[in-house]
Specification:
One of its GO terms (biological process) is glycerol-3-phosphate metabolic process. It comes from Actinoplanes utahensis. Keywords: ATP-binding, Glycerol metabolism, Kinase, Nucleotide-binding, Transferase. Key enzyme in the regulation of glycerol uptake and metabolism. Catalyzes the phosphorylation of glycerol to yield sn-glycerol 3-phosphate. The chain has about 500 residues and is an alpha/beta fold. It is about 35% helix and about 20% strand. The chain contains 16 helices and 22 strands. Helix 12 packs across helix 13. It is globular and about 65 Å long. The N and C termini lie far apart (about 55 Å). It binds adenosine-5'-diphosphate (ADP). Adenosine-5'-diphosphate (ADP) binds next to helix 10 and helix 11.
């Protein structure tokens, strides 16, 4: 058996390739950003060709850094930004249009129409998702309706849809059109019980079945196709792991038992709670999603709380308000004051995701008085990340009956000690971060390695998880209740602000 496992992590802002050893330790990595294309307000696109070229470059460079060749890799996994939609021509391999990114809100009319005639409830029941601009189905419909020639190409069977996992696998294998259950569960097109595309759901969006990839397990011993020898890996490495990024992080955090959860803090925040083989339908604004499916074993489901704006609110302080020069400065600026001085910031820049799902909301900073400074605004931004998480944690407790005794965290913001301390204070439970913070890539590597027997079972993976840091809650229950009560009031002020009908 070869010594290492690789993982492509195709994220919203960058693509990286990471190589891990049997202990789950990082051996090498390379990462490259790609352009964020914003043609108009609310639109966010990526160039799929650029993403493919970056993928080739990061794989080759990481392999060179580690001085490895294809035969040193036991398997390779892929994990990806979810929902982001690519439609390309089967004959030429050219995309018909840029990738429409998960954050893009151009489909708000498509999404709100679904809730006016009962289709929304069918989507909730069958796909486990509330109709929203977030998911792929509306984005595919938009491309079919707005890009010349795509509808005809789709009817002929020439137009293919994929999230970026499918797009990369199609290119790496030169022609294998596949995805995994976790990615498929983010389209509004897959039935959560049959794990197959659902004709009724497809009809809601006018999407021909021939556009869709084959749905496979997230860890698949048969592999997703043969890596082309002229591709970035330079040889036939088993391609045996494929998961959406948040599900991959859940695997990387070894949340394999029902009741175990992780929260990832990046551009947005995504908390997933493993609910086992039980499909739990949310009554409190969470998504029901597939957590993973390993080979022939039964699928494992999760409840998910997705928050659109967390790290990107810190970027907004840096790029738009310009009160900090780097994201890390948010910590030193916020530390200048002991609290937010009564200020609450609800960063509903593109509406609110979980648990509210209100596309009519817009951002607000409330509670301002003349006393307040940039430091209070920075602190309110970090608090907003934590209060949004509290909203999601509360919804999870109501839906599942599970109360957390510790919150496992990962992602770019978790280097911010103050933010993690506030998180423990706001929740009243300890917050714990693992040594290997790259849980997304690690989870994809785990899925790939499990499929080929590089790792024997999930117990072996659990042994790789080690804590690096833990934050204990300090606030009194009164402080916690008062702060959260004001946050809830602030959220109310942001609702029903824009007209989306
Ligand atoms: P993604 O995978 O979504 O691209 P990352 O996990 O790389 O995100 O995290 C990047 C996000 O974290 C950015 O939005 C950035 O603003 C935020 N961030 C990075 N460092 C810090 C910090 N020290 N304090 C607060 N936010 C941070």
């Amino acid at each position: 058996m070869a010594d290492f496992v690789g993982a492509v992590d195709q994220g919203t802002t960058s693509t990286r390739f990471m190589i891990f050893d049997h202990g789950g330790n990082e051996v090498a990595r390379h990462q490259l950003e790609h352009e964020q294309i914003m043609p108009q307000a609310g639109w966010v696109e990526h160039n799929p060709i650029e993403i493919w070229e970056r993928t080739v470059a990061v794989v080759r460079t990481a392999m060179q850094k580690a001085d490895l060749s294809a035969s040193d890799l036991a398997a390779v996994g892929i994990t990806n930004q979810r929902e982001t939609t690519v439609v390309w021509d089967r004959r030429t391999g050219r995309p018909y249009y840029n990738a429409i990114v998960w954050q893009d809100t151009r489909t708000d009319r498509i999404a709100s129409a679904l809730d006016r005639d009962g289709r929304g409830d069918v989507i909730r029941r069958k796909a486990g998702l509330p109709p929203a601009t977030y998911f792929s189905g509306g984005k595919i419909q938009w491309i079919l309706e707005n890009v010349d020639g795509v509808r005809e190409a789709a009817e002929r069977g020439d137009a293919l849809f994929g999230n970026t996992d499918s797009w990369l696998l199609w290119n790496i294998t030169r022609g294998s059109h596949v995805t995994d259950v976790t990615n498929a569960s983010r389209t509004m097109l897959m039935n959560l019980e049959t794990l197959d595309w659902d004709d009724e759901l497809l009809s809601f969006f006018g999407i021909p079945r021939s556009m869709l990839p084959e749905i496979r397990p997230s860890s698949d011993p048969t592999g997703y196709g043969v890596a082309h020898v002229d591709g970035p890996l330079g040889g036939d490495v088993p391609l045996t792991g494929d998961l959406g990024d948040q599900q991959a992080a859940t695997v990387g955090q070894v949340c394999f038992s029902p009741g175990e959860a992780k929260n990832t803090y990046g551009t947005g925040n995504f908390m997933l709670l493993n609910t086992g083989t039980k499909l739990v339908r949310s009554e409190n604004g969470l998504l029901t999603t597939v957590c993973y499916k390993f080979g022939d074993a039964a699928p494992v489901y999760a409840l998910e709380g997705s928050i659109a704006v967390t790290g990107s609110a810190v970027q907004w302080l840096r790029d738009q308000l310009r009160i900090i020069k780097s994201a890390s400065e948010s910590e030193s600026l916020a530390s200048r004051v002991p609290d937010s001085g009564g200020v609450y910031f609800v960063p509903a820049f593109s509406g609110l995701f979980a648990p509210y799902w209100r596309s009519d909301a817009r951002g607000a900073i409330v509670g301002l008085s003349r006393f307040n400074t940039d430091a209070h605004i920075a602190r309110a931004t970090l608090e907003a990340i934590c209060y949004q998480t509290r909203d999601v944690v509360d919804a999870m407790a109501q839906d599942s009956g599970v109360t957390l005794d510790v919150l496992k965290v990962d992602g770019g913001i978790t280097v911010n000690n103050l933010c993690m301390q506030i998180q423990a204070d706001v929740l009243g439970v300890p917050v714990s971060r693992p040594v290997v913070a790259e849980t997304t890539a690690l989870g994809a590597a785990y899925a790939a390695g499990l499929a080929v027997g590089y790792w024997k079972n999930t117990e072996e993976l659990r042994e790789n998880w080690n804590e690096s840091q833990r934050w204990q809650p300090n606030w009194t229950p009164e402080q916690r209740d008062q702060g959260f009560g004001r946050w809830k009031k602030a959220v109310q002020r942001t609702l029903d602000w824009v007209d989306v009908d």
